[in-house]
Write a structure and sequence with these properties.
This protein folds into two domains: 107 residues, Periplasmic binding protein-like II (D-Maltodextrin-Binding Protein, domain 2, 3-Layer(aba) Sandwich); 218 residues, Periplasmic binding protein-like II (D-Maltodextrin-Binding Protein, domain 2, 3-Layer(aba) Sandwich), CATH 3.40.190.10. It has 14 helices and twelve strands. By secondary structure, it is α/β, with parallel strands linked by helices.
């Protein structure tokens, strides 16, 4: 693996809070049969969960759309911390999918990057951020080393792939600006994460900025023909938990208990990292050594960080500038945040000044 020359990226940088740092990856490849089976399983789970939510007898059950990056949620479930809570977990591939599930009424809570949350909140003003579960550095720019050498390191001549409205879209735009390039200066294809991997491997694009586990698969399958850009690796995002305002207002008690269970998982991960890795790798079907290798790139802490308003404002400003949302000014992002359930069980974890 080749590393590009290191520069200093002055854009968004990881704001680490005290606590454990973690990172996660998933299976290196999936067959078409497994992919189709996953679609059927997720569809069935969503249908069943929605029926439970809408039924008169099970009205209080809480459906959580969780991606593999929701490490604390999966760890809490495996440890039994959620057993006494009315919670149904539905595994989804991306934060884009979890957000849509909440909007469509198929889930009560979604997990995603802060950027994906911002994109949804600007379009659906009834969404509220409840907490962050990690400060993560798992969105990486990866390129074919042979393609990079062919253009003699000219980043403006590479063909890129990102997921539209995903954290990779945002980070690539920021990174290109750092290099003195506009997003429109380069060729970019918008693809789902799994298709991004296939496009790079097939050679139809040269580089991609995506997230785990897709980064790991690219690095592994490209083998020696891969380059990573160390000056991009400082870009971080907050992995977040959110839902609709009205539902949150009616369910503060169960939300507080749920967040309390996640904090229990946080402490378990801090005190027993090896066992935590083993449990999460089994639950998510990720090779333990792969998961262990990236465990240091997540901070597993349930928080409301003091810089989250700034982070949301920066994402909003970018969306306005790129013409992705029709706004004349940045709204008051404090209205996107609901810290009450977390403050109820862990006031010291809410670092906001209001």
């Amino acid at each position: 693996m080749v590393s590009a020359p290191v520069q200093r990226l002055t854009g968004r940088r990881r704001q680490t809070e005290t606590g454990l740092v973690t990172k996660m990856k998933s299976p290196l490849s999936r067959t078409l049969t497994l992919a189709l089976l996953m679609v059927l399983v997720v569809g069935l789970a969503l249908t069943t969960a929605r029926a439970r939510v809408q039924s008169g007898t099970d009205e209080q059950r809480m459906v959580v759309g969780a991606t593999p990056t929701a490490i604390l949620i999966w760890l809490a479930s495996d440890l039994g911390y959620l057993d006494r809570l009315p919670v149904d977990l539905v595994r989804m591939r991306s934060g884009i999918a979890t957000g849509q599930a909440v909007i469509d009424g198929k889930a009560h809570l979604a997990t995603s990057s802060d950027f994906a949350f911002t994109a949804r909140a600007l379009e659906h003003q009834d969404l509220r951020l409840l907490a962050t579960m990690s400060s993560s550095q798992t969105a990486r720019l990866v390129a074919r080393a042979s393609a990079y050498k062919a253009v003699r390191g000219d980043m403006g001549k590479l063909r890129y792939a990102v997921t539209r409205n995903g954290i990779g879209h945002y980070f690539l735009s920021q990174y290109l600006a750092f290099l003195g390039l506009n997003f429109d200066d380069v060729e970019v294809r918008f693809l789902p994460p799994a298709d991004i991997v296939e496009a790079v491997l097939a050679g139809t694009v040269d580089a991609a900025l995506t997230w785990e586990p897709h980064v790991s698969r690219l690095v592994t399958e490209l083998a020696g023909d891969v380059i990573r850009f160390e000056d991009q690796m400082d870009q971080f995002y907050y992995f977040s938990l959110y839902g609709k305002k009205d539902w949150i207002g009616k369910n503060h008690a169960v939300l507080a208990r749920f967040l309390g269970a996640l904090r229990q998982a946080q402490e378990f991960a801090r005190s027993k990292p090896e066992e935590s890795i083993e449990r999460v790798s089994r639950v998510l079907d990720i090779e333990p050594d792969v998961l262990a290798g990236i465990w240091q790139n997540h901070t597993l802490q349930v928080l409301m960080p003091n810089d989250i308003p700034l982070v949301l404002e920066q994402a909003t400003e970018w969306r306005i500038r790129e013409g992705l949302v029709e706004l004349d000014a940045i709204p008051n992002v404090l209205e996107f945040i609901e810290p009450t359930p977390l403050r109820t069980i862990a006031p010291d974890s809410v670092h906001l000044l209001w």
